């Protein structure tokens, strides 16, 4: 389940409304990258409120994309808020019978979680159409080609921002996403299920040190860390100013003080300003020192 040159990809907005000019720019860049984008009927909708159409319209676009055998990938325009509204409306039988490449991050963590819980479907925490593809330097081509097209082995390391907070090695299923969305799912039927050895990747935006501390501890108290073997924290530049970085790192280490596995920080995926790295959620990975790579598993 990968993309290739010439793949038709559906452009959808499952959450907040996207700016039409940014979607257009991203679509043009995707064409230049070798894909055939198909902008779904409500992808450019605006309203009600801040949404890209009603929940029913947004889920209709998703269902249509998954039902269309000619479409190989589903790419979100932007995040914001709204994907969680779709979870009770999703057609499990339709989606599980028609797995496709699904790309998005931030608010779409709820969709990644649903696809994994319900279908065991591998998805991609990776650049979005309006948020990243619209920029000249928004997409890291190496990790996109490796993760989403299967060209070369997928791996990330120091050149992708990773630094060691606690040394060690671990293997497991790479799962996670936006920390705030994962935490919000706790106690609902759509909480992320970590039922096998896991490498947990979490990142966020606008989140203060004490909030990272609180949310990571909430995951622990809720039992989500039971099968986690390694933790990969994202790039923190969208959360705090440089002079607060030491405090944020210390807060994360404090929250994870009872966790015995390796911890790295700084992976430039998700809420980053440039060269957004693509992360294959559901892949089996190995982490050692400041490196993580996909391995057979």
TrEMBL record:
Active site location: 106, 203, 271
Highest taxon of the lineage: Bacteria
InterPro entries the record matches: Carboxypeptidase_A_C_sf, Class_I_gatase-like, LdcA_N, Peptidase_S66_N, Peptidase_S66C, S66_fam
Domain LD-carboxypeptidase N-terminal: 9-126
Coiled-coil stretches: none
Location of the LD-carboxypeptidase C-terminal domain: 171-286
Pfam families assigned to the protein according to its UniProt record, in alphabetical order: Peptidase_S66, Peptidase_S66C
Gene Ontology biological process terms from the UniProt entry: proteolysis
Keyword set, alphabetical order: Carboxypeptidase, Hydrolase, Protease, Serine protease
GO MF annotation: an example: carboxypeptidase activity
Similarity remark: Belongs to the peptidase S66 family.
Protein name: Peptidase U61 LD-carboxypeptidase A
Source organism of this protein record: Granulicella mallensis (strain ATCC BAA-1857 / DSM 23137 / MP5ACTX8)
């Amino acid at each position: 389940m990968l993309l290739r040159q010439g793949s038709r990809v559906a452009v959808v907005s499952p959450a907040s409304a996207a700016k039409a000019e940014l979607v257009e720019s991203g679509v043009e860049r995707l064409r230049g990258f070798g894909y055939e984008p198909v902008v779904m009927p409500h992808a450019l909708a605006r309203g009600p409120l801040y949404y890209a159409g009603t929940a029913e319209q947004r889920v209709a676009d998703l269902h249509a994309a998954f039902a269309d055998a000619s479409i190989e990938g589903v790419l979100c325009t932007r995040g914001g808020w709204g994907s969680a509204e779709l979870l009770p409306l999703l057609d499990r039988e339709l989606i599980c019978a028609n797995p496709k490449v699904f790309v998005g991050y931030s608010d779409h963590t709820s969709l990644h979680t649903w696809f994994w819980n319900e279908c065991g479907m591998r998805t991609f925490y990776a650049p979005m159409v309006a948020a990243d593809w619209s920029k000249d330097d928004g997409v890291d081509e190496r990790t996109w080609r490796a993760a989403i097209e299967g060209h070369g082995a997928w791996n990330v390391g120091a050149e992708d921002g990773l630094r060691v907070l606690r040394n060690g090695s671990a293997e497991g299923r790479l799962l996670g996403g936006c920390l705030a969305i994962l935490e919000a799912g706790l106690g609902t039927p759509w909480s992320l299920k970590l039922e096998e050895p896991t490498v947990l990747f979490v990142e966020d935006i606008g989140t203060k040190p004490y909030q990272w501390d609180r949310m990571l501890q909430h995951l622990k108290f809720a039992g989500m860390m039971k099968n986690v073997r390694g933790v990969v924290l994202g790039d923190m530049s969208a959360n705090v100013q440089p002079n607060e970085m030491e405090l944020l790192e210390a807060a994360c280490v404090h929250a994870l003080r009872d966790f015995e596995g390796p911890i790295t920080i700084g992976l430039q995926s998700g809420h980053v300003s440039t060269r957004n790295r693509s992360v294959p959620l559901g892949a089996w990975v190995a982490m050692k020192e400041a490196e993580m790579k996909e391995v057979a598993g």
